[in-house]
Predict the structure.
Amino acid sequence: MASDAFVPEDFEPPTSLTTERFRLEPLGPQHNEADLAAWTSSIEHIRATPGYPDGSWPPFEGMSPEANLADLRRHADDFAARKGFTFTVLDPGDDDVIGCVYLYPTRSPGYDVTVQSWVRADRADLDGPLADAVAAWVATDWPWKRVDREGR
């Protein structure tokens, strides 16, 4: 792996994780309306979730659909460029967006990756199970050894 590469060149990033309670797929523009509705309904809950300590996201004032779409495109571009991997968390029964997972280069010395996740306030019971399932998935299916789970 090149010293500046986030993942090895020959690594094929997983594109899904499925459990009985949720399913992950890469976040993209097709999720705009449901993603925007999910996080704007849960701003205070997300800000209280471990991993969001700086208080800058999500913005209390929300975002326009166009601004959210630009953000989703940025995440999709990062995924394609292998610079970061963002997944939408979907309800397996109806594919409704219930959260998000981020795997990005860390700013913390001693770690290879920072893992963050959030779920809607009305699905708060999934906060821990999602974080734990993602941690297990990262340990078995991704190339990083030193994972910063942002307090989880």
Q: What stands out?
A: The CA atoms of residues 42 and 121 lie 5 Å apart. The mean pLDDT is 93. The helical segments are 32-40, 43-47, 65-81, 127-141.
